[in-house]
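Blinded run. Sample ID left blank on purpose so nobody reads anything into the name before looking at the predicted structure. Input follows.
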Amino acid sequence: MSPELKILQMHILVLLLTLFSCTYNSHGKYILEGSAVYDPNNYMILTNTTKHSYGQAFNNVSTSYKNQSFSINFLFGIVSEHKQQASHGMAFVFSHTRSLPGASSDQYLGIFNERNNGNASNNVIAIELDIHKDEEFGDIDDNHVGMVMRLSIVYSHIDKQLNVSLCPAEFIVPPNKPLLSLNRDLSHYFSKETYLGFTASTGSIRALHYMLIMQPFNGLTYPPMEFGVVPTLPPYPRKASDRTRTILAVCLTLAVFAAFITSGIGSAFYLRHQKVKEVLEEWEIQYGPHRFAYKELYNATKGFKEKQLLGRGGFGQVYKGTLPGSNAEIAVKRTSHDSRQGMSEFLAEITTIGRLRHKNLVKLLGYCRHKDNLYLVYDFMPNGSLEKYLNRSNTNENQERLTWEQRFKIIKDVATALLHLHQEWVQVIIHRDIKPANVLIDQDMNARLGDFGLAKLHDQGFDPQTSRVAGTFGYIAPEFLRTGRATTSTDVYAFGMVMLEVVCGRRLIERRAAENEEVLVDWILELWEKGRIFDAAEESIRQDQNRGDIELVLRLGVLCSHQSESIRPDMSAVMRILNGVVQLPENLLDVVRDEILKGRSEKSLELLFDVNSSFATLAFTSSFISHGR
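Blinded prediction complete.
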């Protein structure tokens, strides 16, 4: 096609297609032309099973994109008549009109025809999803990707830059690096009335072109797209004659196989060995973790035997293993692919910790998908989780107790990890399941935060979206239960609870009498009010030289786990307090106690730095006049 069409070409052949069950726009929003229809599931199908067909679907409401930045995300899929041959493809179109009359049903993708192609008056911008290498138009290659795809289009009016990203639909966010870029001012191609639409054509090879879901947004952002269970689209409908030919071909293949079965035994073993090898695709490199062969993990864990089992949770089992050849010790988490929760956690781990490298985060080495199971491979933590070191009623009497120095370092390690997730990485990551069981201890007694199965991420400077409430009872912040909106402050709440557990060696809630339960935070507050907060620490670590640090962590833990979200400090303030750069105010108990009695927050925290002093002080500012002080 002529360069004046401003078309970015991508060559995509979708051989095996799966479809997320998402609700598409209502019929009334799109004007359908040609063979475009809605199927009973409310998905838009642009072409049918006839040759030389085309379809168009344009939004009947115009949008002004002139001098605007924008981002558009959508899912699409193509089911071709033949796996080895492809039809022409489809396109995403910006047009001044709600239809493109006279479109060809062949190589022009349902946009133009041979006569009007290249006309300067067209003013159409199209993103080609071209699945056929057409020498006539000088197509660059015939690369194919075999799965449902997500296309993200972002245009910066300020930078005059159009970026197009392509990735598998399962991933919540697109890759950081765009697949194609165009540096050009597109403003004069947009009018006050610009219509979004989709076109497709088949030519001599029949295909079904599906438009699944679209999300247009103002501004330069890649909003996350979350999905549930992934159903499978029906295969391309076959005629009776096709089925007959298929049956004859299968019978012939079986006959030939039976005749040469003896000589083929050696080849069968060779092919089986080759089949076990996993192919590392380009998009997997983009997201970081390595793809392990199932045979490699099977051998490493001695067939996933019971004696290799390290632990068992609600969504799978964790096995210890040793990689053949390197003798590297690993931990392999196995979950079910059929489980919606298991698949969601699997993808959350891949898209978050799979791209992170930090000394206080458990390293994800790779993954594997085999039959109905999903496998995540981590560095092995020989000292297990923090939970086993805390004073529990079912703890082994011979279990080594942590010293105060070890506990203080573990607290700082977890705080460092959360600071990296919340403020130092390119996106904000909210863990949503901070607890001692998810803090693992390596051979040098360093703490590493793990299990990102419930993690959520969003761009810096943007508010997180609401989601279902998830986490562990006792560590879930009260505002998360009310609003369903997880923030960095909800992680701070859970971290505060962990700090108190580490120092006190007690559960968050303990039964003290037949019907009475004692809440850890309330118990510490009572001791604090009596001037005996040091007595809350586990007896084995109560030493005079540790008194200052222990009381600091206890007060900070109460502050971080405060019921009011605005009272809690962020992780950068927490790190400065733990490192002695910032001090807690003298009236901290009064402020905390007042906020508990009031039942809601009217105060906020801010850091005030005294330029005349070598120390910074953490102070509270109030929007009201205190009573009695």
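Unblinding after everyone has recorded impressions. The longest strand covers residues 207-218.
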